[in-house]
Protein 1
Amino acid sequence: MDTDTSRDVQPEHKITLRPVIGLTETLPTRDLEQITIEAIRTHRRLRDVAEARYEEWRKSPAVAACDTAGPAQIAYVIAMIDMIAQQTALSTLLDLLGHVPSMPAD
């Protein structure tokens, strides 16, 4: 059993992406910080897309057919799934890093 758990302490209920851990566990902290910063930027972009899709869905006319949610709602659901998946990856990276890195100005 591995006794070094400093980079892998997770509550049992927390979702982590083991492949992300495997890919990054041997990286220097500086590299892990850069990857995490990019993941934060990606998450923010996906959040903005999801918010835009939500607004489009809210403003779209109601779908008459009851066998589909309609393209606007489908686009919103897809955007939310993308954002949630990225959030899980970001959360895993933040746990590995142990802190929120300072974000350089964009």
Protein 2
Amino acid sequence: MSDGPPLDPDAARERLLTAHGDLLATTLDCADAVAAGFETTVDGRPATRDSTAVRGPLRAALGRAGALDRFPDALVEAVAAAGGELSAPPVAAPPYVVVTSTGPVLRATLGPRRLVARIEAFAVVDGAFVRTARTPAAALAVTVAD
């Protein structure tokens, strides 16, 4: 059971794509830089079986590019576009911003609901982390969970 009006993940996704498309593109550029260091491929795409070869280097690349510091503002706008309001300003650290082995995840807990935006730059294919999505629209997934 959820409290308050429903959240619109499509509106949040659209806001991220239109207002923060450059941030999403920077994220994918950082993923390309990380994947360039992989020594294997799956289906002709750079890959690694070591999640730490993705997560740490991706976080470092995002930090150098200034993307980590921009994610909280993007999250605030996504929440507002979805019809929600954060109770506290987010920071570029858990639980709001987490860099996983598939890419950054922006999370906002809104009462009993959670808005989650994933920038899916890598996917697990045949047990390996493979560089996938080539465009912000292909990489971005926004969901709401009760």
